[in-house]
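User: Show me sequence and structure for the first protein, then do the same for the second.

Assistant: Starting with the first protein.
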Amino acid sequence: MAGIVAMPVTTISYAQDTKSSLTSEHSAASKKKPKLKKLSSVPASRVEDVIVTSERRAQNPQNIGTSISVISAKVLENRNINNVFDLQYATPSLQIQPSYGSGQYTYTIRGVGFSNYSSNNSPTVGIYIDEVANPIPFGINGMMFDMQRVEVLRGPQGTLYGRNTTGGAINYITNKPTETFKTGITAQYGRFDSGKVDGYISGPINDKLRFRLSGQTQQGGAWQYNPETQTHLGNVNRGAARLLVDYTPSNTLKFEWNLHGSRDRSDAIGPYAWSPITSLSKTNPMPASASRYDTRWGTSEQFAKEVGINPDQKPYSHIDTGGTSLRLDKQFQNFTLTNLASYDYMQRNEYDNFDDSALSLADVAFRTRANVVADELRFSSNTSGRFHWIGGIYYGHQWLNDRYQSGFEALYNTDGDVRYSQEVNTISGFGQVQYDITPKLQVVGGIRIEHEKRTLNNAYAHYLTAGVVTNPQNYVARQSQDYTLPSAKFSIQYHPMAHDMLYFTFSKGIKSGGFTVYNTSDVNQMTNPFKPEQLYSFEVGNKLVIPKYNIKFNADFFYYDYFDRQVQSKVYSPTTGSAIGLFVNAPKSHMFGGEYEFAWSPLPDLHISQSGAYVTGAYDKFSTVVGAQKVNGVWTGISQNVSGRTIDVPHFTANGSVDYTWHAGRYDIVTGMDYSLRTTDHSLTAVDVLPGYTLWGGYISFAPHNGPWKIEGIGRNITNKHYDVTRGYFVGGDNIAVAGLPATWEVRLRADF
């Protein structure tokens, strides 16, 4: 499924945003000098204004000196973006992959990502819902509903956001309680008997209290097939709800309460073997899958007993979440105080088959419980003038208890059982200022000092034969890592003429270090921490709107100096010689590239948009293990200097769309097409190379002018392109891939009252 940032760029009313009733720093944007305001606004044009809050105040993104894309509610609806995975087809430079088909996604922006299916390490891309950070990778279970917009920021973040990141940030902005009573419901049915229903009810309780209750349920959609058992896999069974309550006792004080939860009992995604399976026998291999939509599963009776399932259990991914947050905004004469406190609980129960067979070659189970408590206190200017500032402190505490079990009985006559708990304490101080030297020239500077301590407790890495632990001594009581590091931002923004901005931005980002915890026979090796990574970014760009011709064109170029990049390497089991994944630091690397976004409305009812990105990079200093040799009966790794090797990333990605509105009396018919292209994702390891692909989509809707109902039809991958979204291996000789969805269609009926 493909999409683009805007068709057209949709106006988002700030009256529904987080501080609509306060005369706060957000409303301060409207108090700027007339000349600055003229630069910030766009006259009557079919390329409309967008208001975002990525800089902690309401701004037009055309006046923010960083690369940012906004996916509006209209695009989310028209492209049927149901989950986080589909976001990559609506913005440049973003790639999202399910790790081996597990319920945990890997986010990559501009080639900066962290490919990991474990639960304990932080991602390179920060995920925020209404400014609340969630640093647990599986904590965002994929559901997206009742969204106002999604903001995707590229490049290091930290001087304004709750957590340091090197890749970027994705901000989900939900619809807020309304001043008048409103309700709506949407029902959708699609191929593979997939269904979705979501709705909301919103309005005032009295003149000071408003609420919004929304929810969604998704069912069906099994698109994979097991030829041995003649059963299907891929059914979705999940639901979520969110309650928002806004209380405004005065014009200078506002409280926002958020209560949310989700329950997921879905099937997992099954991988397929794209080459013959040679892990058991190189001379008599098991055949590859006949179709990329075929997948097989099953495990040994012993591993099934250890995990608590049946040997023929379908793979499943059950991720439940729940939490609450309370935000306070208090306006004083010259500044606004904001406090955002949150609590989130997550649990992951998952069983996956990573070998595409009924044998116990590479079967895994995750049992994870985690919670996050955080509080952010910040102060920001709310007066007009040339000087704008924001500063605050952030504290976060994570607790996680994890058990990871692996079934290798058919291959090694043993199973694995890893258990540990982890605590992470983070405290940071941050601040950013902007000074308007002239109405055309602004400078921005920011800094953040962050201290984090990550502690691993009671780490066991046991092997079991016939249910008996064979290495009880493989245990570490405690391992820890801490750092205190700065991140920073400096930007110059210049408006050579109205509706045009040139900018240069330097920024530095930090990503936390961590522990591999999975896939090693030596617990000391497993708990040996990898270091934090640091990224220095240099970016130049231009943001241009030509109202007369209804054109918007943005372009940027960036260069990254990357230190201690966290990459997955491997070690080899000294007894079996099998490859075992391990995270290490690549001392130095670099990346560079650029993005563009183009929107044009040549006719009142015709909207065209296009975006693309080119990214490349290489390791400047790095040696990695590429093989193994047996010396005196012990397997040892063979290292190779890979300096100069290209970093794995699809070098070019592009998204485009066009739509036209046909007027038929009192009704409108909207038709549209869209596409998404990505080139081959190269890798240090040949089996990890992911071939490129192009997907096409279509959209049609029928509705009365500004009417209360709409009928829509959506097609995704309408050419039925065969492609993969993940490739790799879990055990040597078993090369697996996760296929992308075949052609699908959905019919949707929507009504608002």
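Switching to the second protein now.
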Amino acid sequence: MPTEPPAPEPVSPGFGRRRFFLVGAVAAAGLGTGLGLLSEGRGRPADRHGAAAPGTPAARARYLQIVAHEDDDLLFMTPDLSESLRAGSPHLTVYLSAGESKAGIPPDTHDVNAYTADRETGVRTAYALMLGVRNRWRRETLTVGTLRLLSYALVDRPDVRLVFLLVPDGRDPRASLGWHTLGRLWSATGHADVCGWTQAPEGSPYRRCLSREDVLTALGGLIQSFRPTVVRSQDVAPDERYSADHPDHIAAAHFAAEAVRRHAARHPEQPLLQVNYRDYNIRNLAVNLGEADNRDKRRVFAAYSAHDYRISSENPHWDAYEARMVYRWPRGTGFTAADAVYAVGAGRLLVWRRTGGHWSAPRSLGDPGGPLAPAVAAAGPVVLGLRTDTGEVVAYDQGGWRSLGRPDPKNIHNQAGAPVAVVDGSGTVAVFVRNGRGGVSARFLGPGGWTRAWTDLPGVDMRQVVSPQPKKRHRRYGDVQDGLAAVVTDDGLVELFAATRSQVLWWRQRRPGRAPVFAGVLPVAGAIAPLAAEAVGGRVQVMFREPWTARTLAISRPMRSRAWEGTVPVRAAAHLDGEAPVIGVLPPSRLIGVPAPLPDGTQVCALGADGRLHVAPRSAARKAAWRAIGR
């Protein structure tokens, strides 16, 4: 049924007379006071979510989202986004692209500037709905160096702000740089003269020719002023096995990573935790959100799409995105070691150490010459990570960093997943990684050092997936997903589990110090990766979430038997969407990843969104048992 178009937004006549200067001082949570007032909608929803009280974990956590388009955070970062907003934490979201696409290009008759403004209105409406507050925003101009940026602050939650850089959409051939402006700017390293005109009307204070350094300067200034603890961004290395991603998404992810890296180099004392989200290719994966999350996400996206004429209810992909949220690199539970906890902040390895029962502040161990993916695995004397720029698996020990090389041939891009590692009964460190061909590769550290090359484990159908991307030189792949799980039995033998979209594969060692062999497929109907596994009480148990229902299930067997028993629901499991399920009580603050025990079993450790380490006794049954390390 056709509806009347929304009434024009009333703007205060004082708009544009003053500007808020951002760089040179650290702004308050709201990044300044408002200038013009936009009023949208009537009434006030009953469900209101106020800002967190100062000093609380929610107030300490500060979230920065850097995305390409005005719906990317709603489609690919939600429900994480809606939950952290409702927790009361300050939020700043930066949209790099104006998102105009092909509006106004015949036969389309829509005004391009009006469509850009409509998308901004849509995302403002969605944010207000997520928070349950009035849809009233203050429009401001933020100045970063010589740049003027369009910004809106939510009146009832001034610590929630949206910023628009208005770089032309990658699918707009009218842009001054032609197609893919954001990608062209990212690739223009060392070419300061290359710039693209913003998608803004003539005479607008936001119309200018932006260079690569301009974009990075804007992001750097916003990071410096807002001081986030968590930076959410998109996928720098989309999985080539499945649907292709939008070039704007990839370029936005690269800009975000570089801006964070530069800021961390100038301010190494600030914690900056990164979370990367997969984009278009999540539609090729299993549904991993529960019914309530899916329903809420649909409701929020409907509030946005009411202002975006290009969102068609007949396009099945929107429903697919609303039912899923997938991390590019799940963190897993392998980040603890003897008296140490490891994490990645701004691409560098961080460590907290325990001495005499007391935990130190985090210390940076640097990077291996390039940025690290957010997930690491500690085993024995080494910590393993993945370089996002080269796809190399890297190892850190007392001697520093060394590269273990890529598990893939040259015609595979940087596609490997984050490594998992365990120490078997012979003292050999076994490292496993989902390789870019969709299989599993392994490498081992024994008394004689590292094995010379990566070994591909048998048992994976390497022709199961035919890539829909015709330009890729490698077309057929295995279907193993990120989020492997490895355990060591009482006999010192390693068992490894990997989920495909339809099965759970199983490998086990016959003798310590040897590569595991394929042991078969678990009798489950399907499992959402990542998996969790443990060997305790004479049994091996694998936990996973069930596709479509998102229920947590477990399957187990006696260690000395090869016969698996039936799956059972795990009622005591706690989970975070996109991560492996765990047993136990989560801390009251929001987490980045799930908790993991120390090897001696005395404490459980978790990384908080406030940038602090949170610890509790292993037997903790109450949220109050958790304490945060540091101020």
